[in-house]
Amino acid sequence: MVLALLGGIAGGCGKTSYGETQLEEAKETQQSEDETEAREQPTEQETETQTTTENKGEESMELHVEGRKLCDANGKQIQLRGVSTHGIAWFPDYVNEAAVADLKSWGANVFRIAMYTAEYDGYCTGGDQTRLKSIVDAGVEAATKNEMYVIIDWHVLNDNDPNTYKDQAIAFFDEMSAKYASYDNVIYEICNEPCNGTSWSSIKSYAETVIPVIRKNAPESVIIVGTPNWSQFVNEAAADPITKYDNIMYALHFYAATHKDDLRNTMVAATKAGLPIFVSEYGICDASGNGAIDVDSANQWLSTLDEYGISYVCWNLSNKDESSAILKSSCSKTSGFTTDDLSEEGVWLYNMLQSKK
């Protein structure tokens, strides 16, 4: 049924029966639900008996990993669905509270902040580190104010091996995890896509160096570890997982027009072997991020992810002139998006998230 629904709403290259009115109605519905929730807040006496978070003063959003599953504070499996930024050095204006509120109104419950490490203006290659950290801070606060989860992503790509800038990663995650130690909605992704021959043993060694730095400050936080070959070889992690620490998940990334049954079968096998997988990045186009869109393949992926309760985050919130951007290149807005502002992938994403609210 999910496949049929998604196929119907995603076809037509951006033309959809969901227009600006429906997008505004979704926001109004969310506002109404928020007002109802506010009226139902517990008394001061009741609040004292509830689990709270220092930064939000509300019920715990704490996550933990049980076996292969991501679970909430009550031990119930939870599935996160959301959107990633593009590189925040290049598209910082989308990291704002109103834009994140738009994503929440669509049905997203997680926001990923992608901070490149080695590209132009990368954190470790001449970028303004103070500026980049301030954008990360803005993203964490935007997600927190919208009661969403947030992923701080150390976006390894052109550096290939996360050990290249291991010392900088240690310092960064020490600072971030200390700053957000009381934020139970923050997830740490410590190496986006190790690639070009970087082995699992090398990644694992890096992870076992960085994880204790985070654990010192945020002992219960969930940490996502990238896997070899652009976070595709989860089978290698399944054969030799990190066992020294709890609440560890492993990244799998796919682009639906390129990655099909072979990678999906690899993921299912690793999942059945007990590996906790988190799809921290995916797109419905090809792996270049700018090519043909394959809705049928995307629907097959999501059907499998939903079957196993695996979380997934779509790439990317920007107006870059490429098929993986969810906004049209002509869109100059940084929030208040309507379906007229969305690319083909953006319309698909909006309708998919709406269907799963």
TrEMBL record:
Spell out the protein name for this chain: Glycosyl hydrolase family 5
Which residue stretches belong to region Disordered? 16-62
Q: Which InterPro entries match?
A: GH, Glyco_hydro_5
Compositional bias ranges of the Acidic residues kind: 31-47
Query: What keywords are assigned to this protein?
Result: Glycosidase, Hydrolase
Source organism, top-level taxon: Bacteria
Q: Name one Pfam family in it.
A: Cellulase
- A single GO molecular function term of this UniProt record: hydrolase activity, hydrolyzing O-glycosyl compounds
Q: Which organism is it from?
A: Agathobacter ruminis
Q: Which family does it belong to?
A: Belongs to the glycosyl hydrolase 5 (cellulase A) family.
